[in-house]
Amino acid sequence: MRVAVVGCGNVSESHFRALEEIPGAEIVAAVDIKKDRAEEKAARYGAAAYTDFGEMLKAVKPDCVHIATPHYLHTPMAIKALENGAHVFLEKPCSVSSKEVDELTEAEKKYGRYLGVCFQNRYNNSSVLAKEITDSGKFGKLTAVRAFLTWDRDEKYYSDDWHGTADKECGGVLINQAIHTVDLVQYLSGGCRRLSAHVHTDRLKGKIAVEDTATVRMELGCGATGIVFATTGFSGNSDVIIELTFEKALLRIEGEKLYRIYPDGGFELLCGKLDREFTGRSYWGHGHSAIIREFYDCINTGRPFPLNSAEGGKAAKIIAACYRSSITNNAVEVK
Questions:
Q1: Architecture of domain 2-120
Q2: pLDDT (tens digit, 9 = 90+) per residue, 109-128?
Q3: Distance CA 183, CA 226 (A)
Q4: Strand ranges for 84-224 from DSSP E
Q5: What is the pTM of this model?
């Protein structure tokens, strides 16, 4: 399968490295508007370098396109690739509005190609086991969920031409960093029906046009209440914590570890980190290789890919609702 990677920034390395492990996948093109970045990746992975996405589609006619560009380009580029007969594997967020999610889902159906959204943290061993436990009902009903993301993004991080901008990044900590956490919360809890959110800029006020801190209260599909706190104003990059309160137990995800916490303060480690090399940053988790491997296996076997545009778009719609709620200072429905 002939594969093109579009967007050769930091996260693209996780895609290139994962593709090297896919039997039959041949990286044929690296695309970036910055010529030096495209040429560097192309030289390293034996591909052709392009600076124009449309030109690459016509010249190369790839079987699959990986898109890791600034957020505002995700949906338009994905639809264009689908129109040109390519499968698409899309970095988060798949879309920057509910309207775009619906347009993407329509295009996926219309052109009959596979589209996958990269929520790799669903493939962390802690997430997989937590989902199994939640679905089994062994600890009774899930009654409450709380999640914390405390990361460090200083002014240098926003020094490129799109991070920190309202028109290209289309948001800050929620749409960029915490969207993975929001996705896991809704995934483990039957979705989100309604929410109230507040976003603000604490660390870099006046220096970026987007939020670096957010709080969200979610009415979850299973009936539980969810609370998410996220900030990039911390002094380090800690493992994300998600705590799941059941009728008969308390579970805590800390990155790739899953604990059962007992009332006396004791705990049991239910699963730990995988012993393998990280690609990218350690707090991203190991999931890129696993999700990309399953995406190609689904294409080759004809199985539906579980994180298609509709499923992957759930978190994008929640994030869009968060921004609506914060602007209006009211609770809003997720739709």
A1: 3-Layer(aba) Sandwich (3.40)
A2: 999 999 999 999 999 999 99
A3: 12
A4: 87-91, 115-118, 142-150, 192-200, 213-220
A5: 0.95
